[in-house]
Write a structure and sequence with these properties.
Length: 416
């Protein structure tokens, strides 16, 4: 199983349980639609077993699925590598001309394991969050004073000294520029996905998630470990080591909002089964992966301000806030999906994780009650057409060291 990200809520550990039940609902010669595909672990499991649509509203999830499904028209050969490195160096040189002193100091402090001076360097480095004067624009830094006219500098001006080091941020900007300059005949989704992977293994935050940077003073060992990763070398090595798997099916990645997808009759006419793994809690997934959205769109957007301050995660305003992660709308949206499946004779299998013990376990953040969800399915499809399968497991709890006991529910609805 290929894995681009250590994705929160991915189904790798549950895939056998899901597959042995989902197999009974896949209609021959019709597409299986993984409608909230995330890191595409379920979609990729069926990569060569049946035709697949992998859909997700998050743009980085689309690129991950497209990287797995889209065959390269041209290989990343020596000709491509030469041109890619040339473009990378072009952007890097422009930033190096401005930040060479800071880059050299950072390298020295990292080599000497000199935390006090490294921290001082980071505290004095200009970003949009502190508004210090920057030689980059010969002015105090602000998001609305930046553009692409001189070079790609979004990660350097936004996330160096926090999520990434100064050199690492410059490398990220320069890789992103080189990807943008890559001809469209190449699989640019693959390049973006491999960049996501390198970011997740080098980012200075908890477990590779990007909800907020770690505290420097409390995590010096982790800081030096992360900062000593050369992002460009890691990225180029990941391209060399990547093996593309060809599928006999015409699999496709989609990037639809649920409402828009439900109106696409061309897609639904070819679908026989939908696997739906909606969010379980009101914790927006986008807060854990907002840097992936940022580096994909690469737009200089207004920072998010909450209670008069920048958010701890240093979010930008283009972070997606999904209605599916709200108690007010989630069940309503899922009911719309049920109605569509019933009308079009499509089988629907819904995954939903819920605490195995309700007493003593906080469920206020869960966006649906599992019993209410099951009842909605039986109301729509009929009691005889709904089967509920369960699997007990322990789920990572990011706020506590102990794992939480959870029941994974598979609500299998026969619509054909």
């Amino acid at each position: 199983m290929k894995s681009i990200l250590n994705y929160q809520g991915n189904k790798n550990k549950l895939i056998n349980f899901i597959a042995e039940n989902l197999n009974n609902y896949i209609q021959k010669d019709k597409y299986l639609l993984d409608i909230f595909s995330g890191s595409a672990s379920i979609a990729y499991y069926y990569f060569n077993k049946c035709p697949i649509y992998a859909n997700d509203l998050e743009i980085y999830c689309y690129h991950i699925a497209n990287a797995l499904f889209c065959k390269n028209d041209r290989l990343f050969d020596d000709m491509w590598s030469t041109e890619f490195k040339k473009n990378y160096q072009k952007n890097y040189n422009k930033l190096d001309l401005i930040y060479y002193k800071e880059i050299d100091l950072e390298k020295t402090f990292l080599q000497k394991n000199d935390f006090p001076n490294l921290k001082k360097l980071y505290e004095s480095f200009p970003t949009i969050w502190n508004g210090y004067y920057s030689k980059l624009i010969n002015d105090k830094l602000s998001w609305n004073k930046l553009d692409h006219s001189y070079c790609y500098c979004l990660m350097t001006t936004h996330y160096s000294t926090s999520y990434f080091g100064i050199l690492q941020a410059i490398q990220l900007d320069s890789i992103r520029y080189a990807i943008e300059m890559t001809p469209i005949t190449y699989n640019k989704s693959l390049l973006l996905s491999l960049l996501y992977s390198v970011m997740s293994t080098s980012v200075f935050s908890k477990d590779g998630h990007m909800a907020q940077p770690l505290n420097l003073d409390k995590n010096p060992t982790r800081l030096f470990k992360c900062r000593n990763i050369n992002i460009f070398d890691s990225f180029m090595k990941s391209i060399e080591n990547y093996n593309y798997d060809a599928s006999k099916f015409d699999n496709r990645a989609l990037n639809y909002d649920l409402d828009d997808l439900l109106r696409d009759e061309e897609i639904f006419n070819s679908v026989g089964c939908i696997y739906a793994d909606p969010p379980y809690t009101d914790m927006q997934y986008s807060r854990y992966y907002h840097l992936l959205t940022t580096i994909t769109y690469y737009a200089y957007c207004e920072p998010t301000i909450k209670n008069g301050k920048f958010t701890a995660g240093l979010y930008l305003s283009n972070r997606n806030q999904s209605a599916l992660s709200t108690k007010k709308e989630c069940l309503t949206k899922i009911k719309m999906l049920m109605t569509k499946c019933k009308k079009d004779n499509i089988n629907l299998v819904i995954s939903f994780g819920y605490p195995s013990k309700i007493s003593g376990e906080k469920t206020d953040r869960y966006i649906m009650n599992v019993d209410e969800l099951i009842l909605s399915c039986t109301d729509c499809f009929g009691k005889d057409n709904v089967q509920v399968k369960t699997y007990d497991y322990k789920h990572s709890n990011h706020r506590n060291s102990e794992k939480k006991k959870v029941i994974e529910y598979l609500i299998c609805c026969r619509g054909q």
